[in-house]
Amino acid sequence: MAQRVLVVDDDRTVADVVCRYLEHAGYQVEHVGDGAAALAAVAAAPPQLVVLDVMLPVLDGLEVCRRLRQRPDGVPIVMLTARGDEADRILGLQLGADDYLGKPFSPRELVLRVASVLRRCGGEPTPGAARELTDGGLVVETGARVARLHGRELALTLREFDLLEFLMRHPARAFRRAELLDRVWGWRFGDQSTVTVHVRRLREKIEADPADPRRIVTVWGVGYRYEPADG
Fold first, then answer.
1. Which end of the chain is more exposed for a tag (fewer CB within 10 A), N or C?
2. At CA 79, angle to CA 78 and CA 82, rounded to 5?
């Protein structure tokens, strides 16, 4: 069965192009033109992914993203932002968007981004890699893509889960932000503040005191390192 993608954009010309490219790639596509309609569509039949523009009538994309992140199903979100509008992009990532593209964008690149996000959502761990990572009450089940802290399931976005899994697989090793952008996001180029935002969000969810992190620590002048609680 084709995977379902909800496209939320009030620009009919942009939406028509995006929908056509996604349908050509084999996705089942639904389009709505405002934020309230997007929330109603997700509530009625949750899609596998939402392509979400920031500038929307009724409710803007940032508010839609915030409300979608309150849902337990964790539907992935690829956000579309005006190129150079860093504030919206950073806020979207802080609210839990899994990926973003700046307008104007290549429809082919959008299709590739959608495919990448969906593949990560349903992907299996690398052959031979541990399917469960455990560290001091923090358990990451890589096959099921579930993380728990002291038995409580964590509401992680796709990228947050990927980042946590990667860091736990490489404990006590410092990574530059550019390395994490490449090895977790698969981006050779991109805004490294994306990594900073996701680290901050992860700390809020797994650290006893996010202001004094003990697991994901900052290596000044380099990037970040995962320090096992059990080690």
1. N
2. 145
pLDDT class of 128 with cuts at 50, 70, 90? very low
Report which secondary-structure segment, H or E, holds 207. Answer: none
Higher pLDDT among residues 65 and 74, named by residue? 65
Which residues pair with residue 204 across a beta bridge?
none
Tokens of 198: 């996701």
Cα–Cα nearest to 91, from 51, 64, 59: 64
Give residue 37's pLDDT band: very low, low, confident or very high (50, 70, 90): very high
Domains of the chain, first to last? 4-122 (3.40.50.2300), 132-226 (1.10.10.10)
**H or E segment at 197?**
helix 193-206
| DSSP codes, 49-76 | EEEEESS-SSS-HHHHHHHHTTSTT---
Angle value at C-alpha 62, between 66 and 90, nearest 5 degrees = 100
CA distance 83 to 68: 23
125 pLDDT above the threshold of 50: no
- Examine the pLDDT at 225 and tell me if it is beyond 90: yes
**Per-position b or e across 192-218, b if 16+ CB within 10 A of its CB:** eebbbbbbebbbeebbeeeeebebbee
8 Å CB contact between 68 and 42:
yes
221: CB partners within 8 A, 6+ apart: none
Task: Extract the tokens encoding 148.
Answer: 């728990």
